[in-house]
């Protein structure tokens, strides 16, 4: 599965890829202008073992840098504002039917 996030006309910000390799699911990202993919996932581990026999263990990565689970959770708590894929509603309005 490969996703391209675009900004404006034909300008890619990043490309995501999810692969299965040696009994684990790997979440990868390649930023605009970079040649290689890196492990990256904002909301969960970037390497997720699919079985106990996998040679990989659950690992947290942001832009190719590995973090311990405690450090990753701390980074997530310090984030502010809405994620890039959500829009804020005007005060007093909801979009519910």
| Distance between the first and last residues' Cα | 33 Å
**String of helices and strands:** EEEEEEEH
Strand runs, count: 7
Outline the low-pLDDT stretches: none
What is the strand and helix layout of this fold?
Blueprint: E1 2-7, E2 11-21, E3 24-31, E4 38-39, E5 47-49, E6 60-62, E7 65-67, H1 69-78
Antiparallel strand pairs: 1-2, 2-3, 3-4, 3-5, 6-7
Folded structure, characterized:
With 97 residues, the chain is mainly beta. It has a domain at 2-62. Helices cover 10% and strands 37% of the residues. It has one helix and seven strands. The protein has one helix at 69-78, and strands at 2-7, 11-21, 24-31, 38-39, 47-49, 60-62, 65-67. Strands 1, 2, 3, 4 and 5 form a five-stranded antiparallel beta sheet that branches. The protein has a two-stranded antiparallel sheet with strand order 6-7. Strand 2 (11-21) and strand 3 form a beta hairpin. The chain is globular. The mean pLDDT is 77.
Quick recap:
This protein has 97 residues and is mostly beta strands. It is 10% helix and 37% strand.
